[in-house]
């Protein structure tokens, strides 16, 4: 019956509206709306003018993909996408889902997961800034293993006009196998011969002794460059519980014995321009932050920072083709097309805001207005059904 089709259709619309209102506070929820279509006409005669309709049906339930407003939070792992794209999350079984809900946190295994425990996908970043393969994001707050120094380099310019026995000292800190910081002092002494200096290296007695090549002679050319030679090698004999006999190379020369230009002699004042070493102490990750491109940046106890991961985003040619599976999750289908994987802030992808979540795009006021309209339509159909029932009853009772 025509009125029954109306009752069914408007009942479904009320159900959709109720679901929208119920999820008005659900993170990143996208509201739905109902589209109606008339049923095929039933012709009562050969004349189309005398045909009548058979009621209404729900032709489609569409999703509104408009951007929801962003709300601030206090968690660096709460993320919102500004523009196109979905976060990629994966279950333990390997099933891939897509979501706009960026309410993420670290689980007991230090994996960045969604509120339902699905692993967020991203790219690891190595020390050179290169991206690795797409996979789980694992961020450990455990202390790192210290790295003992094996090479040092100093960029020093010595004053050629320094008087005989005049000195210039530089200090560079190195690290032992336990991550202890040990200052090495290198003292340069001008000899009586032009363009010739002697040097000695030492450490404080509280750490142990410095042996190996702990002293030597430096001879400079008339253009101020260092004459050919071989790199000195220090040996630290430590008394603080760290690995003893730690060998450290002082990088002064190239592999062919020519100077690498780090040590020169000019008429300017003696100065230490720069120094470096390849060791590091044990450090602890103290906090993380996420920038607009989805790069997760770690801050460490020594004040240093490092790029750890970059969060991946996915996009689709047809959002309406995505299959909603609950918990703000979607799956790709034939209608949606394959996911296009990329990075925030590039091409078709939006940017990422940290310490923010995307709110539902449900307009409660509009939904309530639509609910009143649907309710009246439902009541009208119910009244028609009641009248039809009375007509049928009258017909049956005819004698």
3D architecture notes:
- α1 (2-22) packs antiparallel against α2.
- The protein has two helices and 28 strands.
- By secondary structure, it is mainly beta.
- The chain has three domains: 2-65 and 361-396, no CATH class; 72-143 and 289-358, no CATH class; 151-277, Tick-borne Encephalitis virus Glycoprotein, domain 1 (Sandwich).
- The strands form seven sheets. Strands 5, 6, 9, 10, 21, 22, 23, 24, 25 and 26 form a ten-stranded antiparallel β-sheet that branches. Strands 11, 15, 17, 18, 19 and 20 form a six-stranded mixed β-sheet that branches. Strands 12-13-14-16 form a four-stranded antiparallel β-sheet, with no helix packed on it.
- The model has no long low-confidence stretch (mean pLDDT 90).
- 14% of the residues lie in helices and 39% in strands.
- A hairpin with a 5-residue loop joins β12 and β13.
- The chain has helices at 2-22, 364-396, and strands at residues 32-38, 56-63, 70-72, 79-82, 86-90, 96-99, 105-106, 112-113, 119-125, 131-136, 151-159, 167-175, 181-190, 196-202, 208-212, 215-219, 233-238, 246-250, 263-266, 271-277, 285-290, 295-300, 305-315, 323-326, 329-331, 340-343, 351-354, 356-358.
- It is rod-shaped and about 135 Å long.
- 24% of the residues are buried.
């Amino acid at each position: 019956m025509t009125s029954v089709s109306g009752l069914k259709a408007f009942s479904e619309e009320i159900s959709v509206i109720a679901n929208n209102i119920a999820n008005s506070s659900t993170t990143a929820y996208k509201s739905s709306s109902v589209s109606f279509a008339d049923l095929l006409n039933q012709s009562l005669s050969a004349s189309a003018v005398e045909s009548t309709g058979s009621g209404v049906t729900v032709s489609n339930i569409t999703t509104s993909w408009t951007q929801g407003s962003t709300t601030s939070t206090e968690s660096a792992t709460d993320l919102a996408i500004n523009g196109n794209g979905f976060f990629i999350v994966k279950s333990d079984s390997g099933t891939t889902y897509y979501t706009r809900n960026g309410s993420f946190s670290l689980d007991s295994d230090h994996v960045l997961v969604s509120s339902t425990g699905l692993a967020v996908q991203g790219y690891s970043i190595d020390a050179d800034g290169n991206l690795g393969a797409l996979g789980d994001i694992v961020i450990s707050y455990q202390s790192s293993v210290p790295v003992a120094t094996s090479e040092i380099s100093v960029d020093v310019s010595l004053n050629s006009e320094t008087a005989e026995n005049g000195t210039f000292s530089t200090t560079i800190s190195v690290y032992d196998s336990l991550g202890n910081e040990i200052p090495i002092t290198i003292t340069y002494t001008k000899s009586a011969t032009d363009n010739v200096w002697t040097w000695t290296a030492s450490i404080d007695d509280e750490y142990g002794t410095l042996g190996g090549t702990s002293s030597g002679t430096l001879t400079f050319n008339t253009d101020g460059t260092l004459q050919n030679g071989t790199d000195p090698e220090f040996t630290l004999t430590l008394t603080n519980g760290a690995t003893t006999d730690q060998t450290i190379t002082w990088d002064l020369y190239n592999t062919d014995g020519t100077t690498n230009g780090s040590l020169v002699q000019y008429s300017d004042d003696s100065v230490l321009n720069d120094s470096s070493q390849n060791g590091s102490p044990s450090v602890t990750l103290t906090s993380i932050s996420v920038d607009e491109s989805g790069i997760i940046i770690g801050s460490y106890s020594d004040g240093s920072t490092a790029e750890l991961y970059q969060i991946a985003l996915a996009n689709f040619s047809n959002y309406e083709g995505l299959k909603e599976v609950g918990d703000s999750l979607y799956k790709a289908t034939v209608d949606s097309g394959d996911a296009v994987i990329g990075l925030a802030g590039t091409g078709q992808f939006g940017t990422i805001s940290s310490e923010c979540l995307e709110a539902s795009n449900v307009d409660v006021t509009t939904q309530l207005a639509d609910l009143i309209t649907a309710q009246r339509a439902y009541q009208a159909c119910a009244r028609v059904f009641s009248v039809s029932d009375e007509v049928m009853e009258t017909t049956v009772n005819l004698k």
